[in-house]
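ok trying again, last paste got cut off:
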Amino acid sequence: MSSATPVPARKVGLLSASALGVGGMMGAGLYTLLGLAATTTGPWLPMAFLIAGFAAVFSVYSYAKMGAAFPSSGGPANFILKQFGHSIVSGGVNVFQYISYLIATALYAAGFSEYVGALFGTTFPGWTSRLIGPAVIVVFAAINVLGSQLVGKAETYIVAVELVILVGFMVFGFFRADFSNITVASSAGVSFIGILTASGLLYVTYQGFGVVANASGAMARPKKELPRAMFIGLAIVAAIYLTVSTLVVLLLPQAQILADSGHVLADAGQAVLGRLGFVLVSGAAILATASAVNATIFAASNIGGFLAQQKQLPQAFQRKLAGKIPVSLIISAVVIIVLVAFFPLSAVGQMTSLAFLFVYAIVSLGHLKLRAQTGARAWPLVTAIVINAVMFVALLIDAIRTGPAASWIVLIVALLGSFAYAWIRSRRAQLAPPDPE
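nice, full thing came through this time. structure:
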């Protein structure tokens, strides 16, 4: 997921918009969450990706209709404002959406740390593994201060390298596939609830479709081309995810998938091409997660500044230290470092997916109010709301049952705190004296 992929200033056509969607969706989420999802699916991992992709279709429909009707670069934050106006609901959802981006950045930083640790193994002392994630946050926060234009331009090349490595992995992988890895024993204990839980976790791997909605303002014919581009991008990414996850199940025994869940794709690369495959896939994962950290911390900082302009966050988020360093970037980086330092990869993975499932459900719910303006049908929006809600509940129950208690408690506190903060700001605005004429 790379939700802040730069949008070109020139007019965006169908092909480039589709490529933008592929680049936005197919990123760090695949490397960081695939192994974690396998812990509840066993050999049914591809089914979880398929269900998640099917579920994403309805949210893509909602975003496509909203983006076509209201072309802008503001993305979901603007959607929420269009749907709910300047209210406690929009304030609470948008503040929580900002927090969601911080949690997502923590996920990618944790994934970066996992793959660096797997690649270098015992080369690093044990204590350094706790510093890698925070260090990458500091580095990319500094890059954003100095100017992230170069990294933004490199995004296209990073996605191209990822695609080449993944396509090579898929082609050579089928020659090494071992169907004996799929046994009755490996399916023991797997239930539909487990697969549904994994689908909720993997749903966020399709999250980048919002990038195409952000590009709608640069399209010549957004009403026609935006929906097509989003669905083309979704179809391509879903096909890649299904193929890769199928190969992982066929290449690795279930015990190894569970043992190395944080970097299981690198293990699959090793099963195909030995040490070279391990290094290539690890390198692709490091590039993807680093790129996602840069893009998402940039997006979080911008959202913080935007919400401050809309008076939904303190005005301090608009300020700059020494005339150059955005306060919103500093706050974002500090919160992300705390998340990376105190929560393992599995915890931030669950938190990220839960957060975006909630946001997508609210966007589709608010969309129902604007159907006359967007031309959307009601049943896909209602389906999106129901699917997101069901996945949210299933994943939350799993987080309560299996994850660290602090992770889901922090998420719920963040959600309730966002709405409490919006209510307090609303009350202060009502009590404030009117500006003098």
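cool. The domain at 14-427 is CATH 1.20.1740.10 (Amino acid/polyamine transporter I). The CA atoms of residues 71 and 216 lie 5 Å apart.
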